[in-house]
Design goal:
It contains 3 helices and 9 strands, in the order αβααββββββββ. With 277 residues, the chain is mainly beta. It has one domain: Porin. It has an 8-stranded antiparallel β-barrel.
Length: 277
């Protein structure tokens, strides 16, 4: 019996040593096997400075309806005709539209918060929007004091916008390689502007045999390179076509404050190519 117990003890010790020698390591934590993981996926970086060039086509509208009012009021000042009949309020000009291509460039800076991209941009375009007002001469016979006045009012106006641009605040949201964005900002530009008004008054006494008297009044204004300013808004989408190169398509609406009582606005569609530093 004692010999049997000795033999069993020897077998147990041998089997324990053998088990330790051939023990399979337990998989745990960092000791586990992980296959080679792919490198990080490419993700566009929109933050930083960027620059680019653009081409576009736009339609400009010019409103000349009120552009002769102050001219007529000034040349008929202190007259019974203006005091009683207000010919300065007569409309002799209308509205017009004109189209033109444009080309230019832009410079901007973006800051990114994860997928939200905010930025500021300076945008400039050369163009040739040349608008001439339709003319609607008016002739009216009115009573002024003791006279009957046959009044003919004629006007003309033109506006040629040579260049314009915007200073924008932008906001976009990154979707893969795409960046849809919107913007709002100030618009600026230069224009050659001209206007004129002429009033021909034939005075005929209501009684008596005195002959008619014809009086002609005329005034004009013109300014080359006049500064125009206003506001702008729009939106578009950019797509990263290379690590630092992007393309853009956008729409812009710009409205300008009146100059010589002439109001103007521009709607433009553009394509652009840019480089991000």
């Amino acid at each position: 019996m004692r010999r049997l117990l000795v033999v069993l003890g020897l077998l147990v010790s041998i089997s324990g040593a053998a088990a330790q020698e051939f023990e399979i390591p337990t998989l745990r934590g960092t000791d586990s096997f992980v296959p080679d993981a792919p490198g990080p996926l490419y993700r566009p970086r929109w933050s930083g400075f960027y620059i680019g060039g653009q081409v576009g086509y736009g339609v400009a509208g010019a409103d000349f309806v009120g552009s002769t009012s102050d001219l007529v009021a000034h040349m008929l000042r202190n007259s019974e005709l203006q005091a009683e009949q207000f010919p300065s309020t007569w409309t002799v000009l209308g509205r017009s539209q004109t189209g033109s291509s444009s080309w230019g460039g832009f410079l901007g800076y973006n800051i990114g918060w994860e997928c939200l991209i905010l930025g500021v941009e300076l945008n400039y375009n050369r163009t040739h929007f040349s608008a001439g007002s339709p003319e609607f001469p008016i002739e009216r016979v009115v009573s002024v004091g003791s006279n009957n006045d046959d009044v003919t009012l004629i006007g003309s106006g033109s506006m040629n916008i040579t260049d314009y641009g915007t200073v924008r605040m932008r906001a976009g949201y990154e979707v893969g390689n795409f960046l849809p964005f919107g913007f709002v900002g100030l618009a600026y530009g230069r224009a050659n502007i001209a206007r004129s008004a002429t009033a021909v008054v034939v005075q005929t006494p209501a009684s008596g045999n005195a002959p008619p008297v014809t009086v002609t009044f005329s005034e004009s204004d013109n300014k080359n390179g006049a500064f125009i300013w206003g506001w702008a808004l729009g939106g578009g989408v950019e797509v990263m076509v290379a690590p630092k190169v992007f393309m853009r398509a956008e729409y812009e609406f710009a409205a300008f404050q009146p100059v010589f009582n002439i109001k103007s606005q521009i709607q433009t569609g553009r394509l652009a190519l840019g480089y991000k530093f």
